[in-house]
TrEMBL record, chain A:
The chain crosses the membrane at residues 20-45, 57-78, 98-122, 261-286. GO terms for biological process: visual perception. It comes from the Eukaryota. Belongs to the PRPH2/ROM1 family. Pfam families: Tetraspanin. It is a multi-pass membrane protein. It is found in: Membrane. Keywords: Membrane, Transmembrane, Transmembrane helix. This is Peripherin 2-like b. It comes from Sander lucioperca. The lineage of its organism: Eukaryota, Metazoa, Chordata, Craniata, Vertebrata. The gene is prph2lb. InterPro entries: Peripherin/rom-1 (IPR000830), Peripherin_LEL (IPR042026), Tetraspanin/Peripherin (IPR018499), Tetraspanin_EC2_sf (IPR008952).
TrEMBL record, chain B:
Signal peptide: none annotated. The chain crosses the membrane at residues 20-39, 59-78, 99-123. This is Peripherin 2-like a. GO terms for cellular component: plasma membrane. Belongs to the PRPH2/ROM1 family. Gene3D superfamilies: Tetraspanin (1.10.1450.10). CDD domains: peripherin_like_LEL.
Length: 361, 366
């Protein structure tokens, strides 16, 4: 009871082979696209690595890059095989390779699917990385004299201007870090000393934000200092407050940016996966049809092609037995009752060397 | 004494026609490039239309757009003509059109050159326009409640951030205008009232700049207020401080940007002009050699091609005479008998009709 059995005439086999040759070359292109998408994602993540704490998010673009390269190689080989399959003589060259090739391609297609799923599942890890990265960036904003952190101020300012955001979750995050370096604080000034003393950790905290938080859409000049005291500024009503600074937090702004990229990439990879699956199915039919033709002996006759020779349960059972026997081979045990159960698959495919170890050819 | 006479065999003529057909099609592509360059320049100028005072700078992109479209049309026609010139019988179709076509293309090529030169000469007008436009924009920065000017603040802020510049000539321009609207000034406060009173025109001037002038490269938090007061800020000296604000003026920044664009466009147009000139020369040679072949009668023989039949001076004189006589024929025709110019014999034979009688005896002409 074969799965998906179809009958192929000689003309149909040849057409299938030619069609698959074309599809394999298109798959090489899609493999290159996969590679390009992986590279693009890697570049995008590394562009903002200063505000992202590396938590192994780079495995996603790496996966896509390797899958893309493997896709190109596999489909290139597939194209050559399918081109030779139009001629039954040339097919004999590839007869031994085709079954491993189909199995490899099945495993590879599973990897493509895994890549697509990874694109969607990385979102929570990304948020965590951004949260920690932005928190550190804000903490070290003032350290423009420390090597390794001297460009963090510029990076964060550019980020806030470009993505129109302020702070981690909002502008109030700036009230909890000291973002004015002590080099620029006049310790002789009593108000400065008071403020430092009033804080437990001796940090200079104030209810002000850097200039890059200022919104360009505000109708009034930007108010950056004494933001919690509404009466300190003239006519600072609710609407002015809403428009004064960027309301969004940089974490959610960056998450939106990356989610958009990842969703588009994920969708593209899913489509590529479906395409690869289609090509794999075609190659499997071609392989079984050609093998049956050779078994029948007449190259011009009709033959059957299928996806699996027996039903799914039987195939799974026989493969499981093969793996068990392979395991037993390494132990040298030939008294296993499982070996002598006759089945259609095992008699043909089971290597007999396990029962005749001294007589290996 | 023809100018640059060359000899063409039949195969050379055919090859010339084919090469010119390809070159004409390449010229259509360069015409499209010219058109898109003009469009790009127009869009770039309109993008910052709010910052530019009304000056005649739109004529440069408009010229480029028009020249680009005409280039496509002329070279398309030229391609068709050259394609037909391979076959001498088909050439007869175009025989009468070719000379006007060449003259038109010559004038058009001249327009392309003018377009290229305009790109380089626009500089002065542009600077003037930017100077006035930016001064106005800075003056109306605070008027976010006045219709027609409410987005000027946003435009100026984005300009400062994008082009990394401040003010018209520099950040000190902001000290001379009131950029904080009266709506946000607390008139009941003493220092506000004092400052307003101390100014002749009652303007609230401060030595401060908007936030968009802040330099992101500065290692310290931005100092926007009391910029000239060294003692107001710790460890600060405004004379030596270069990283705090953007030092470049926006006029210079925009001028640099536009000059860069226009120099690239001008160079491309010059190269296009040289290409068009070479195509025109080829078409002229093709035209003269084919006409000579027809005059000789034998379609497979060699023929001469030239740029001008006589020397430059003679051609100029003949054309001038033609224009003069055209002018005279519009007036009352009494000059036939007395005008010495008409009866000067020239190399090209004048046909007076089947009788071949000079126009003196017009009443008897058929």
């Amino acid at each position: 009871m074969a799965v998906g059995k179809l009958t192929f005439t000689k003309a149909e086999r040849e057409k299938l082979a030619e069609f698959l040759w074309l599809l394999n070359w298109i798959s090489v292109l899609t493999g290159a696209i996969l590679f390009g998408l992986g590279l693009f994602l890697k570049v995008e993540i590394q562009k903002r690595q200063e505000v992202m704490l590396e938590q192994g998010i780079l495995y996603v673009p790496h996966m896509l890059i390797t899958t893309g390269l493997v896709a190109c190689a596999i489909n290139f080989l597939g194209g050559k095989i399918c081109l030779d399959c139009t001629d039954t003589n040339k097919f004999l060259r590839w007869k031994m390779v085709m079954m491993p090739y189909v199995v490899c391609t099945l495993v590879f297609t599973a990897c493509v699917l895994a890549g697509a799923v990874m694109c969607y599942s990385i979102s929570s890890q990304l948020e965590e990385a951004l949260f920690l990265g932005l928190r550190n960036a804000m903490r070290y904003y003032k350290d423009t004299d420390t090597p390794g952190r001297c460009y963090l101020k510029k990076t964060l300012d550019l980020l806030q201007i470009q993505f129109q955001c302020c702070g981690n979750s909002g502008y109030r995050d700036w009230f909890q870090v000291q973002w004015v370096s002590s080099r620029y604080l006049d310790m002789n000034n009593s108000s400065v000393r008071d403020r430092l003393r009033s804080n437990v950790d001796r940090k200079y905290l104030m209810d002000g934000v850097p200039f890059s938080c200022c919104s360009t859409a505000s109708p009034r000049p930007c108010i950056q200092q004494r933001l919690s005291d509404r009466s300190a500024h003239f006519n600072f009503d609710r609407q002015s407050q809403q428009l004064n600074l960027w309301r969004r937090g940089c974490r959610s702004a960056l998450m939106e940016h990356y989610t958009q990229i990842l969703q588009s990439i994920g969708l593209t990879v899913l489509l590529i996966w479906l395409f690869e699956l289609l090509v794999l199915t075609g190659v499997r039919y071609l392989q079984t049809a050609m093998e049956n033709v050779i078994r029948l002996g007449d190259p011009d006759s009709e033959s059957e092609g299928w996806i699996l020779e027996n039903s799914l349960a039987e195939t799974a059972r026989s493969n499981f037995n093969i793996i068990k026997n392979l395991g037993k081979c390494y132990q040298g045990d030939d008294d296993d009752p499982n070996i002598n159960i006759p089945s259609a698959a095992t008699e043909r495919e089971l290597p007999s060397r396990c029962a005749h170890i001294p007589e290996t050819s | 004494m023809a100018v640059l006479r060359l000899r063409f065999t039949k195969t050379k003529r055919d090859k010339l026609a084919q090469v010119l057909w390809i070159l004409n099609w390449i010229s259509v592509v360069t015409g499209v490039i010219l058109f898109s360059l003009g469009l790009f320049l127009k869009v770039e100028i309109n993008k910052r239309g709010e910052l530019m005072a009304e000056r005649d700078i739109q004529y440069v992109p408009n010229m480029l757009i028009a020249v680009g479209i005409i280039a496509c049309a002329i070279n398309f026609l030229g391609g068709k003509i050259c394609y037909d010139c391979v076959d001498t019988t088909k050439f007869l179709r175009w025989k009468l059109i070719m000379l006007p076509y060449i003259i038109c293309t010559f004038f058009f090529t001249f327009c392309v050159l003018v377009g290229a030169l305009m790109c380089y000469s626009m500089h002065g007008e542009l600077e003037e326009s930017l100077n006035l436009g930016l001064a106005e924009a800075i003056r109306f920065y605070k008027d976010t409640d006045t219709p027609g000017r409410c987005f000027l603040k946003r435009t100026v802020d984005m300009l400062h951030i994008e082009f990394q510049c401040c003010g018209n000539n520099g950040y000190k321009d902001w000290f001379q205008i009131q950029w904080i609207s009266n709506r946000y000034l607390d008139m009941s406060k003493k220092e506000v009232a004092d400052r307003l009173r101390s100014n002749v025109e009652g303007k609230y001037l401060i030595d401060g700049v908007p936030f968009s002038c802040c330099n992101i490269n500065s290692p310290r938090p931005c100092i926007q207020q009391q910029i000239t007061n060294n003692s107001a800020h710790f460890n600060y000296e405004h004379q030596t401080e270069e990283l705090n604000l953007w030092m470049k003026g926006c006029r210079q920044a925009l001028l640099e940007y536009y000059t860069h664009i226009m120099q690239s466009i001008g160079l491309t147009v010059l190269i296009t002009w040289l290409f068009e000139l070479s195509v025109l020369t080829g078409v002229r040679y093709l035209q003269t050699s084919l006409e000579n072949v027809l005059r000789q009668g034998d379609l497979d023989s060699e023929s001469d091609g030239w740029l001008l039949e006589n020397s430059f001076m003679e051609t100029a004189r003949t054309n001038l005479n033609i224009i003069k006589s055209l002018g005279k024929s519009n007036q009352i025709d009494t000059a036939n008998n007395g005008d010495p110019n008409i009866n000067v014999p020239s190399t090209s034979k004048a046909h007076y009709g089947p009788d071949n009688v000079p126009p003196n005896e017009i009443p008897e002409a058929s």
